[in-house]
Amino acid sequence: MSSRCLVVRAIRIAAFVGVYASLGPAFAPLAQTPSATLEPVPAPPSYTEPDAWTVCAAFDPTGHDRIWAKKRKWHDRRDHREDVDVFYIHPTMYMEGAAWNVGPEDASMNDLVDEWPVRHQSSIFTSVGRLYAPRYRQAHIRIFSLGDSLSYLAAEVAYSDVKAAFEHYLSHWNQGRPIVLAGHSQGAYHGRTLLQEFFETGALADRLVAAYLPGMDMYPEEFETIPLCNTPEETGCLCTWMTYAEGHRPRWLNDKLAAGHSAPLCVNPITWNKSERWSPLDAHLGAVLPNFRPTKSGAIQCKLAPDGVLEVTRPRMFGGKLLDREDWHEGDLNLFWFNVEENVRRRTQNWLSNHTKSQPAELP
């Protein structure tokens, strides 16, 4: 095993006790006794089959439409998609149970994944290009608070599926197109490792439009060649952030910083730079609520704090006081839905304008 691979594995082990440790009740593991063993491990998905994907442009070219259902009255970009692929990894939805991983044969879990993260998050990217969103044996949320050996093994099971899905997609469907990588929370955790293994060097290094991976603490030392995005147009870079109310900090982050750890990477998802000033109110293009309805623009301001946290104001909308909270992990993408959508289109168009049509590069 190369030294680079050993570093990646060490980072994955060290990353467990982090972002989930201080989440609110909706993300807190229930008081259930975890299984003392990883077994029985659910059977892995077969990515040659449509059921292994929540959305897959190769099997269902109109799969985008299922995400939107009857909501086209406020959003319809079907005629503007570019010649680009989006690979999206959904966050943790497995909150209850003693087992360490849940298999894609669990119909109720699949419904939950489709109704919430796939609908609310991957919908951001459907206007850009072809969407590929695999099902995978996601690990229980407890892995990020326990951080023990079984947690690591459960995460490895989950990532093995994500990697298999990505390799199948590359071999059969990509055909040399540029790629947008997207994911949230556990999806961002696995997306980080995909960046490290597939995009740092090699044939894919120049095909990355951008990676949108919020909801997981990431650090400069984890990447050798992929920079944090510094401008709204930059390509081949990483966009990541963790959203909290002004002045609030999770304990785990304070502990890391007190121990001398570097601050997490963070970009402002409204201004798309690293300014520590509040974003202009009129720069916020709108959020999407849990009922999948959009808000008006100008509802939120945010800024980067020196310790790598994205601070946000209370939403300026009807019922904003009821929405107020300290930890906005659940809204890392929804709060900035229209800004992210506008930005991914902008980066995509910039990538396409700067790259001439060529034969597909040899895939790894």
Q: Describe it for me?
A:
- The chain has 364 residues and is an alpha/beta fold.
- It has one domain: Rossmann fold, CATH 3.40.50.
- The protein is built from 9 helices and 9 strands.
- It has helices at 3-14, 63-68, 107-120, 143-146, 149-174, 186-199, 251-258, 320-323, 337-354; strands at 53-56, 85-89, 130-134, 179-183, 208-212, 237-239, 243-245, 302-304, 310-312.
- The strands form 2 sheets. Strands 1-3-2-4-5-6 form a 6-stranded mixed beta sheet, with helices on both faces. Strands 7-9-8 form a 3-stranded mixed beta sheet, with no helix packed on it.
- Strand 4 (179-183), helix 6 (186-199) and strand 5 (208-212) form a beta-alpha-beta unit.
- It is globular, with a radius of gyration of 19 Å.
Residues in helices, as a percent range: 25-40%
Distance between the termini: 17 Å
Strand content: 5-15%
Mean pLDDT across all amino acids: 86
Q: What's the total helix number? A: 9
Q: Quickly give the structural class.
A: alpha/beta
Gross morphology is: globular
Q: Supply the number of structural domains.
A: 1
| CATH architecture group name | 3-Layer(aba) Sandwich
Most strands sheet: 6 strands, mixed
List the uncertain runs. Answer: 1-31, 358-364
CATH top level assignment: Alpha Beta
Key attributes of the depicted protein:
about 375 residues, Rossmann fold
Question: Short summary of the structure?
Answer:
With 364 residues, the chain is α/β, with parallel strands linked by helices.
Topology:
Blueprint: H1 3-14, E1 53-56, H2 63-68, E2 85-89, H3 107-120, E3 130-134, H4 143-146, H5 149-174, E4 179-183, H6 186-199, E5 208-212, E6 237-239, E7 243-245, H7 251-258, E8 302-304, E9 310-312, H8 320-323, H9 337-354
Parallel strand pairs: 2-3, 2-4, 4-5, 5-6, 7-9
Antiparallel strand pairs: 1-3, 8-9
